Amino acid sequence: MTFENERAGLRADAVTRTRLDGAGGTGGGPDLSSSAAKKRSAVTALEQHIEPDSQAAGRVADETSEAAARGFQDWATGAGITAALKGWRESVKSLQARLSAEKAALSGTNRLFLGADSGIAGQFPLLKPGGGPLNTNPPFPSRVSGY
Q1: Alpha helix locations (H) across the chain?
Q2: CA separation, residue 143 to residues 112, 133, 135, 138, 140 (Å)
Q3: Cα–Cα distances in Å, from 31 out to 35, 50, 128, 146?
Q4: Hey, what long-range contacts does 137-141 have (CB within 8 A, 24 or more apart)?
Q5: Going by C-beta distance under 8 Å and a sequence separation of 6 or more, which residues neighbour residue 101?
Q6: pLDDT score of 83 more than 90
């Protein structure tokens, strides 16, 4: 196989795999679409179930581990349980911070997209020479339809 043949095959394969319009979940690629309703649902689940449930689970483990550490306080096992409990508390605290950050990111994404859309929309009147909404002669015509 020559270099040109191999390169042509690789290019054809890359074109087959590259889909700019694949955001709808078709073509076997990941679904890149976003839904404000799904984000709100995820934030609600985080607020009402995941965060409180993980806090409650952390407290249960704390209580039982503290009781076990008190029961073995004169033994090396008690010191080991105390050290493990310290690591557990750090893990629970880290998990809570991560859940809180995910919740903030999910709720802030919609505002980010709306702000970006508004900013871009605000730039379009600058490109309209006549300022009218039905301007059929744009200053920078697109040649996309020619392809």
Answers
A1: 3-17, 36-45, 51-71, 76-123
A2: 30, 21, 17, 12, 9
A3: 11, 25, 35, 29
A4: none
A5: none
A6: yes
Residue in this structure with the two tokens 């249960």, named with its chain if needed: 60
In whole angstroms, give the CA distance from residue 46 to residue 96.
11
Band the pLDDT of 24: cuts 50, 70, 90.
very low
Match 């690591």 to its residue by tokens. 87
User: What tokens does 104 get?
Assistant: 């903030």
Nearest to 34 by CA among 141, 124, 116: 116
The residue count for the chain: 147
pLDDT band at 136 (very low <50, low <70, confident <90, very high): low
Query: Which DSSP letter does residue 27 get?
Result: T
Its pTM stands at 0.53
Under a CB-based contact definition with an 8 Å cutoff, are residues 66 and 119 in contact?
no
Interhelix angle 36-45/76-123, nearest 10 degrees: 160
Spatial contact of 103 and 46, defined as CB atoms under 8 Å apart = yes
Q: Compute the distance between CA of residue 25 and CA of residue 29 in angstroms, rounded to an integer.
A: 6
